[in-house]
């Protein structure tokens, strides 16, 4: 459920863009939607995940710069910065001897330490790739193509990567009887 609520501002951005064909209106909607989502999460749970705070900060700063400077490139950088921040967080935690993925998922999944490390490095590589790919699409293709890639391409690649990770991890998961 959390995944779908986190995706809500992206869907509103996409829908607004395709209804208005205006990146600036869509950016304003995304800023408001993300702010409302974080506010609602805080009121409901009295806690907001770190990544939601990071996402809110990025949408306010980069979306605000887009609106203030009337330059669409700032909002186009947001997915890249978010991907790279997530990858850097995993990388730094690994260098500090704390596996970020294990800290987040260790209750649901029991894996040997080397597998946690491989998984972490796979995600670091994926986030680096996704950030670079977002910039490639943003600067090499039309605005319409970038908006579609932001929703469908990013989600599709994430889904394919998660499926690949699941297949890799399946040999480590024991069925409970």
Q: What structural class results from the helix and strand content?
A: mainly alpha
DSSP strand (E) fraction? under 5%
Ranges where pLDDT stays below 50 over 5 or more residues in a row are: none
Round the Cα radius of gyration to an integer and report it.
Answer: 18 Å
Number of helices: 7
Label the overall shape.
globular
Number of strands: 0
Task: Tell me, rounded to a whole number, the average pLDDT.
Answer: 91
The biggest beta sheet is recorded as: none
H/E topology pattern: HHHHHHH
- End-to-end gap: 27 Å
Structure overview:
The chain crosses the membrane at residues 23-43, 50-69, 81-98, 119-139, 151-169. The chain is mainly α. The two termini are 27 Å apart. It contains seven helices and no strands. The radius of gyration is 18 Å and the shape is globular. The chain has helices spanning 2-20, 23-45, 50-69, 73-95, 100-105, 113-140, 143-169.
């Amino acid at each position: 459920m959390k995944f779908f609520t986190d995706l809500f501002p992206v869907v509103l951005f996409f829908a607004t863009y395709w209804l208005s064909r205006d990146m600036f209106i869509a950016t304003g909607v995304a800023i408001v939607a993300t702010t409302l989502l974080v506010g609602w999460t805080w009121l409901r749970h009295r806690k907001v995940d770190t990544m939601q705070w990071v996402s809110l900060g990025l949408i306010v700063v980069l979306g605000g710069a887009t609106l203030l400077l009337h330059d669409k490139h700032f909002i186009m950088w947001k997915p890249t910065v978010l991907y790279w921040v997530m990858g850097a967080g995993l990388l730094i935690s690994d260098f500090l001897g704390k596996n970020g993925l294990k800290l987040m998922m260790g209750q649901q999944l029991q894996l040997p330490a080397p597998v946690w490390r491989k998984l972490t490095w796979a995600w670091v590589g994926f986030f680096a790739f996704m950030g670079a790919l977002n910039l490639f699409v943003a600067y090499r293709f039309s605005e319409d193509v970038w908006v579609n890639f932001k929703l469908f391409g990013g989600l599709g690649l994430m889904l394919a990567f998660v499926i690949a990770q699941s297949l890799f991890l399946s040999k480590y998961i024991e069925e409970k009887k």
